[in-house]
Amino acid sequence: MNNLRLKHRRFVEEYVIDFNGAQAAIRAGYSKKTARQIGQRLLTNVDITKAIEQRMRHFTMQCELKTEAILRQLTRICFSDIRKIFDSDGKPLKLHQLDDDTAAAVSSMEVAGSSIKIRFWNKIDALSLAVRILNLFKEDTLAQTQEDKYVMIVPATATHEEWSKCVEQQTKQKPNGPFGPK
């Protein structure tokens, strides 16, 4: 970042505040009239984009925002267990009595008189995010055709012999599956 002009360094510092190129240009001292165009132009400058990436890495390190920590938090939400917020008598534990994993899975607690409302972070959202981060499923998995497999409707009351007869009859009609020869 030292190889940048002073105004460019200022733009980098301002840009990482809100990621708004026009506003960063204005705060860096550029004209309000041309701030949008200047912001766009500066964001195409290789040295400036490298400096922005460097600042973001610096912030990430300062905040200790690392993949391991993110996955640890997601794991806490994904595998949270509501039973851990109650004692052996079924009474809710006080907030300071919750273990770290359970406390991380709780999004809010509201106390109104003698009732307590406890909300957990959404497990489905957390699991979906974890699946995407870990790339457990390819996006096109559902769209992939399974050429050698198809659905056949057989009555639920069919015996094993009747079911076998239906399968045999279906394969005689379409020996290569429902879509014909490959």
Automatic annotation (TrEMBL):
UniProtKB keywords: Viral genome packaging, Viral release from host cell
Pfam family, one: Terminase_2
GO BP annotation list: chromosome organization
Keyword Lipid biosynthesis included in the entry's annotation: no
The keyword DNA-binding is annotated on this UniProt entry: no
Name of the molecule in the record: Putative Terminase small subunit
Naturally occurring in which organism (per UniProt): Nitrospira japonica
Taxonomic lineage of the native organism: Bacteria, Pseudomonadati, Nitrospirota, Nitrospiria, Nitrospirales
